[in-house]
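Data availability (excerpt). The following record was deposited with the supplementary files.
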Amino acid sequence: MELHLVKKNALILASSQGLGKAMAAELVKEGANVMLASRDGEKLAAAQRELSQLGTGKVSYMVTDITKAEDIKSLVAQTAEEFGGIDILINNAGGPPGGSFSDFNDEEWQQSFELNLLSFIRTIRESLPHLKKQGGKIVNIASSSIKEPIPGLILSNTFRTAIVGLSKTLASELAPDRILINTVGPGRIATDRVQHLDKMNAEKQGVTPEEMTEQSINKIPLGRYGEPEEFAKFVTFLVSGANTYITGQSYLVDGGMIKSI
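Predicted structure:
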């Protein structure tokens, strides 16, 4: 299958490590130019060096706090200027703190809103003038909670599902401009974030992190955590030229863990 990604220009948020970096790696392998963004300059520089060896595409980075509107404006402008345009936008953000409803005050709700929803809205808004020029692809990274709320993650459950509503609405609004937009939720993918959640849940239940991980794996029909590369390959298809008719949809990459239809 030809993905038609050579010389396409992609902007990926939260891409110095984890799923963001894995998605960047797959795009670089396919010949795309990729702009990395996160708050950690050292990790970004290391990721750029590593990913630049994987393909013919150019890899750049910009230190960005995606909770700040001016940072997002600068990031989008720099990406368009350096690459000559933007064809692909992948919105991604680290997960908010775990806890129940009574654990969080207004400030913490506001912080999660700005990180996990408003950042996506702002980046889409800034990128649209570039995406509209030749059509483009947007993928919003959410969570398996878009299909089934995760106990102890009320902030994530709230704002990840809001992303689905945003994407579904924009699918209709952006279709005349030949922009396809979809949402993808990872299940238990082997990242630092999942390791942190396993440790947090282990402490709550009075078990070891290893026992917690085993409990989680037992709920996955495929019997293991997914690898970041497996998740990234699916997203790569959605933002590629091979996807010409899929928009407004929500997908899980979870090894069959979520049982909802």
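Summary of structural features: Helices lie at 18-29, 41-51, 69-83, 106-134, 154-174, 192-205, 209-217, 228-239.
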